[in-house]
Design a protein that fits this description.
The structure is a homodimer.
Chain A (H helix, E strand, L loop, with lengths): L9 H24 L6 H7 L14 H26 L5 H18 L1 H8 L10 H21 L12 H13 L7 H21 L3 H5 L3 H17 L3
Helix pairs in contact in A: 1-2, 3-4, 3-5, 3-6, 4-5, 4-6, 6-8, 8-10
Chain A binds a DNA duplex (30 and 30 nucleotides) through helix 1 and helix 2.
Chain lengths: ~230, ~230
Amino acid sequence: MPASATSPSRRERLRAQTLAEIREHAYAQIAHGGPTALSLNGIAKAMGMSGPALYRYFASRDELMATLVTESYEDLADTVDAAAEQARGRSAEQRLRIALDAVRDWALKAPYRYRLVFGSTYGSGELDPERIIPAAHRPMSVILAALSDIDAGSGQGTVSDPVLRRQLKGWAENTNEAHHDPGVLLLGLTAWTRMHGILSLEIEGIFTQMGIDPERLYQAEINQLIAQRSGRR
Amino acid sequence: MPASATSPSRRERLRAQTLAEIREHAYAQIAHGGPTALSLNGIAKAMGMSGPALYRYFASRDELMATLVTESYEDLADTVDAAAEQARGRSAEQRLRIALDAVRDWALKAPYRYRLVFGSTYGSGELDPERIIPAAHRPMSVILAALSDIDAGSGQGTVSDPVLRRQLKGWAENTNEAHHDPGVLLLGLTAWTRMHGILSLEIEGIFTQMGIDPERLYQAEINQLIAQRSGRR
DNA sequence: TATCTTAGTTAGGACATATAACAACACAAC
DNA sequence: GTTGTGTTGTTATATGTCCTAACTAAGATA
């Protein structure tokens, strides 16, 4: 086995290529028929290979699924990070809007991936916490930073419930966000649950059915978060 | 075939009993292993029957799944209606709290059912709109009624965005809720998305993982909805 | 060149959905 | 009661998964 530091060998290149092709087909299957439609045999057939061949690349259907989930988690985090990078120098409020819009854009561009990340992950074996936990936290970190930088005009920033305040503190300490005050932490969490509430319903198409544009709901919620943070009314 | 108006025949009783037993096993399977784990053959074996026997009761796995989804929809609606009935005579604010708490209790008691209703319904064939649409709307109706009855103290009740206002109006007309003003409609929708955001994440266990009590988040959101409606701050 | 590793193949077991053909029983009509 | 019909079950079978085992071909390396 050649040192992986050197240029990739022919075999390594081919393997990487095959792996990529497998994932592509896998996403296509899921996009088309949902997680249920993911089939190693189906992918193999689509790639012109025999079924068992794929087991050289993934130990099981579950492992492939877990890979897709983990990858999607990280892709979302990367996307939000990239948006945050792009937004450097803008106002805190603008940075918050850009970050949250990035989440929505990502979700709408690939709803099946959003479902993989936030839906119940049945049949996706174990997810590697070493990769999932950071990926799950990075977007939150961006949101917290932006929220925190918004001028908290007239007070009201604190969390009155002492138990909740302590829980928030504990969470922040575990995730390297202890520098934020509880009000920001709670608002960050709230931002996340509110956005997710809209997005997860939107990608199921329930707003289309109602004739309501979820974009407007989403923006209204963002406006309210900002108002809540800045003490405006 | 005896008239279904008369007392149910022996055959009809047995059939109903078998159907109930099938559904029970089906829910147990889903509760244990997710929608993927639903298996006609498995149910049959658990009931001491041969696989194909179940096809006398459900034409396909998808049809069984669709039945479970529809049934769960209606069960949630019934639960909220029952809570609303129980809460008659209480203050509008209390009625709102009781209704929303009923949703959360229902979701926590049977998360797999909540997922069936609000998750992506892959592999659950067609859902009958004649049953789904009313069931989906009944809880919203309860929420709107309660919200509407809360004193809207200092104005701010209207929806400033004219497009959104028109969309809300259209939705309300299609669902027999045209008597509510746009502010209430928007707040009802917002209540729904916010509650769903928390619940759908809660049942995936992400708050436990963070060491945060979602009950407190839920109540905080309810408080804010009420404050928003009543103009309090 | 000879050997080891990797990537593919076919064969086959365990199970799932689903259909077809058949047996046993309940029920209604005579 | 006997007869005929519809319902509920059975077994057998086709098809399609996941996945393992055993084998082959080809690349990488000594």
